[in-house]
Amino acid sequence: MSTRKFFVLLRTCALVYIEKEREMLYEAKETLQEFNRLMTDIRKTIPVQYDAFINEKDTITKTGRVDEKTKWLLLLVASVAQKCPVCIPRAVQHCLQAGWTKEEMLEACMVAVLVGGSSVMTFVTLVDKAIADLS
User: Fold this and answer.
1) What whole-number distance in Å separates Cα of residue 131 and Cα of residue 116?
2) CB neighbours (10 Å) of residue 47?
3) Is residue 123 assigned to a domain?
């Protein structure tokens, strides 16, 4: 990935704190679409490494001693703790598909706040917005 594309990705995926009608501007669907578009170039450029990453993700998220549903909730909490605005909507999508409720997801995300402090709470609001956008 070129430096320019990297910075475009950062700019595209960064949180936008512009208030519009008292609502934070964060579009989960658009964030995922742009991320997927940019990842297409990475897949074309380094297909072996890209496929290895995808295979690893698929292996780790499959049911083992911990069921797949719970793993996606853990990934959501980790996404919040790591303050990843791109990871959050992807994890929310999977959590919704797995049957987690809004209340369960938000409660679990409060663990990330406990670990990461009050700045992480901003990213819990992105979870709430992503649930609304993707439901």
Assistant:
1) 21
2) 10
3) yes
